[in-house]
Design brief:
The chain is an alpha/beta fold and about 300 residues long. It has a single domain, classed as Ribokinase (UDP-N-acetylmuramoyl-L-alanine:D-glutamate ligase, 3-Layer(aba) Sandwich). Helix content is about 35%, strand content about 25%. It has eight helices and 14 strands. The strands form three sheets. Strands 4-1-9-10-11-12-13-14 form an eight-stranded mixed sheet, sandwiched between helices. A four-stranded mixed sheet has the order 3-2-7-8. A two-stranded parallel ribbon has the order 5-6. α1 crosses α7, α3 runs parallel beside α4 and α7 runs antiparallel to α8. Bound molecules: 2-keto-3-deoxygluconate (KDG). 2-keto-3-deoxygluconate binds next to α1 and α7.
């Protein structure tokens, strides 16, 4: 049984060192919020499994090869011979600003459906991680995620919902319609401050959203504040963690790193303070290097940022 089971669409990210419009070389990387989280957790020595649909072409092979190299379990993956891998083009626009474009409509990953998830869910996990990206990909993917959340709760597997609103995939109103009900199945909800009302009433403030989530059975709400760190709400109160003082060169994947760090702390049985510190540490590693997940630390490297006190 894995510690972490996560479900989503893995993308191939093609990165250019400068503006895409200027042409030049692209480098090939694995991307996708859920696979980033799986890699982060696996690098710290936990057992992580990723499931989704992967094309049978070269990009699909690349995806599986990267995940296997990171020690992420891919036994539950469904191969899709009819659809391509979703692509993400990323350009480095300034030293610390990157810009992203998707070519993912009709991709293998977006064709995810309930049947793809039955066996992995039956195999169990200590935690199921879902994001608000997957339900935006297609009707069948939305149904699959709803089914997975319900099946996990029925099997006693806690669910972590990582909101991750993607404005290019759907509107805030469409997202809220799906994500607010989904959050009721979660024990942990992770959102950035501007995503909070997507799991609550439109325009509701942080304390109102948190109170409502607690009422619905959520026990921990993490509010990501970017360079300001994060706030954790539990029924015992509110705790803040600062971001570490590092030089940010690429923030893509930072939220996924934060989640991976938090979950790693949870798997290690750390208290809330320890889980938040590990989350902040992984976030700091992620923003300090280019790439979606390449810069994530192995366990022995966690102490490399000791002394980069919280800002
Ligand atoms: O969090 C990083 C992700 O945004 C990136 O890897 C691509 O999953 C992705 C998405 O849908 O935006």
């Amino acid at each position: 049984t894995p510690d972490l089971l996560t479900v989503g669409e893995a993308l191939v990210s093609l990165r250019s060192a400068g503006p895409l419009a200027a042409g030049g070389a692209l480098t090939t990387h694995l991307a996708g919020a859920e696979s980033n989280v799986a890699v982060g957790v696996a690098r710290l020595g936990h057992r992580a499994a990723w499931v989704g649909r992967v094309s049978t072409d070269e990009f699909g092979e690349f995806t599986l090869r990267q995940l296997r190299a990171e020690g992420v379990g891919v036994d539950g993956v469904t191969r899709d011979p009819d659809r391509p891998t979703g692509l993400m083009f990323l350009e480095q626009r300034t030293a610390d600003v990157t810009r992203v474009q998707y070519h993912r409509a009709g991709s293998a990953g977006s064709a995810l459906r309930v049947d793809d998830l039955r066996a992995p869910l039956a195999a169990g996990a200590r935690m199921l991680h879902l994001t608000g990206i997957t339900p935006a990909l297609s009707d069948t993917a939305r149904e699959a995620i709803r089914w997975a959340a319900e099946a996990a709760v029925a099997a006693g597997i806690p669910v972590c919902l990582d909101v991750n609103h993607r404005v290019r995939l759907w509107s805030r109103d469409s997202a809220r319609e799906v994500l607010a009900p989904l959050a009721g199945h979660a024990s942990t909800v992770i959102a950035s401050a501007d995503e909070l009302d997507l799991v609550g009433d439109p325009g509701a403030d942080e304390s109102a959203v948190v109170a409502e989530l607690f009422r619905r059975g959520v026990d921990t709400v993490l509010v990501k504040l970017g360079s300001e760190g994060a706030r954790a709400h539990t029924p015992a109160g509110v705790e803040h963690v600062g971001a570490l003082a590092v030089t940010a060169v690429d923030t893509v994947g930072a939220g996924d790193a934060f989640t991976a760090g938090y979950l790693s702390g949870w798997f290690d049985g750390l208290d809330l303070t320890g889980r938040l510190r590990r989350a902040a540490t992984l976030g700091a590693f992620a923003v300090s290097s280019r790439g979606d997940c390449e810069g994530l630390p192995r366990r022995a490297e966690l102490s490399l940022l000791d002394g980069h006190e919280a800002g």
